[in-house]
Design brief:
Elements lengths: L1 H6 L7 H18 L4 H4 L15 H11 L7 H13 L5 E4 L4 H4 L8 H7 L5 E4 L19 H14 L1
Parallel strand pairs: 1-2
Helix pairs in contact: 5-7
Length: 161
Amino acid sequence: MGFKYCYDIDWGEDSCNISKTMFDNHKRQYAKRQIRPSDTFGYLSPEIFFGQELSVGDRVKQHLLAYNRPKNELEYLYKIIELSQQIKHELIIVIPPAREDYKKFIPDNIFCDLFLAVKNKNIKIVDLFSPNNLESEDFGDTDHLTPKGAIKASKWLNSLI
């Protein structure tokens, strides 16, 4: 949903055009909300978090529908893994945090394919999703951090890597 909602990009669109389309649509989103990145230090203003009009369950349903991808899309992850190994770069995958009420609607096996894809590949996965190191007030909505929450999560992430 993120690509479709924020950037009006369908997943079938030619990948060469995606970056330009995202950039152009992102500029329009900022203009529509009359927000300049310098006004918010890179964050949307606190009153403009996504999904507040939805119940938590409906928000999760939207995400699960939007990110329910065919297994062959893991090929991009495999290409990233292969490239990082070829150029000898450490690959770290970060699973982002979410509020506790959001997590209750997420299937237990949500990251199963990810863990299987990186198994025995010497890749570090930093899971900010499962632990309970963030409070509800660190989130602007169910899955976006406030500036205070982002600082807290960044420090936490730094301690883990």
